[in-house]
Amino acid sequence: MTTLLTGATGFVGSSVARVLLARGHQLRLLARPNSNRGNLAGLDAALVEGDLTDPASLASACAGCRFLFHVAADYRLWVPDPAAMLRANVDGTVFLLRAAHAAGVERIVYCSSVAALGLTGDGTPADETTPVHPDKIAGIYKQSKYRAEQAVLALIRDEAVPAIIVNPSTPIGPRDIKPTPTGKMIRDAAAGKMPAYVDTGLNVAHVDDVAEGHALALEHGRIGEKYILGGDDLLLRDIFALAAAAAGRAPPRITLPIAPLIPLALLCEGLARLGIEPLVTRDTLAMARKKMFFSSNKARHELGYAPRPAAAAIADAVAWFGLARQAA
């Protein structure tokens, strides 16, 4: 069985590739011509070049495939050109799923994000049914994932595209080569470069468990359903404390209020126009105002999803970044 996977050069996708190979899938990996292919080393898979914004390349990649895992996405919390992110994450998803459907692909697993879901607002975990308020979605990345998920749901409803949606929370672990925004925070905390934090929270999952959840969604998921692939709900201070402990460092202890950081965010956004990556933006501060806690009960019950403790994910990430404390 030939299975097409997008995003294998990236963080989550590289883990999905390894899970699928272990299950006996014959993999075809779609990669952009200029992508960093370090995460593909050692993988027994065929490589085809293409781009999510090039429908012709997608039709060729889908030909003869039985299954599709669409994991590729532009994951950045700030971009100089929001339209480019929307083209990749929204238009590219539509192009790919239509190409797969036209090619006769039997089942599709689309990797969305909890960024596309609603939040409760009171700190209790949200689930797949929590209402979303589109006008309150902060940041272009979250907006792109919400729009892409809505487009996939429309394809399922209107064009009978056989897709299942998974919503990873905050994956952490090895092979975070860019790194992702969360991976960078873990790396900086482990390196002693994160002296302070804001009072927020995230749902943290090991990237390998998230990858396993993708395979379980193909095997047991229901067409048209969404499944949160998460782990433990943790305050940001506790995430940083675990990262620091794994590296043998003292944790950051300074809590920063959000409102006084807005002028700094404005300054960082101005410098970003000169090509300097922003340390903080107004969008990231808006995201931090709510704790992003989620329940994976649906995936546990329907898919058999069983994530390990988040502390293991953080320890594995610190080790992969080469910052783990050496045993005595």
Describe this structure in words.
This protein is of the alpha/beta class. The protein has a domain at 2-175 and 204-232 and 293-308: NAD(P)-binding Rossmann-like Domain (Rossmann fold), CATH 3.40.50.720. The chain contains eleven helices and twelve strands. Strand 5 (107-111), helix 4 and strand 6 (163-168) form a beta-alpha-beta unit. The N and C termini lie far apart (48 Å). 48% of the residues are buried.
Q: What is the helix/strand order?
A: EHEEHEHEHEEHEEHEEHEHHHH
CATH architecture of the domain at 2-175 and 204-232 and 293-308: 3-Layer(aba) Sandwich
Q: What is the overall shape? A: globular
Biggest β-sheet strands, sense, barrel: 7 strands, parallel
Could you estimate the helical fraction of the residues in percent? Answer: 40-55%
The portion of residues forming beta strands comes to: 15-25%
Q: What is the C-alpha radius of gyration, as a whole number of Å? A: 19 Å
Structural class: alpha/beta
Number of helical stretches of at least 4 residues? 11
CATH class of the domain at 2-175 and 204-232 and 293-308: Alpha Beta
Low-confidence stretches: none
Task: Please identify which CATH superfamily of the domain at 2-175 and 204-232 and 293-308 we are dealing with.
Answer: NAD(P)-binding Rossmann-like Domain
User: Which fold does the CATH topology of the domain at 2-175 and 204-232 and 293-308 refer to?
Assistant: Rossmann fold
Mean pLDDT: 91
Largest sheet, spatial ordering of strands: 3-2-1-4-5-6-10
How many distinct beta strands?
12
Distance N terminus to C terminus?
48 Å
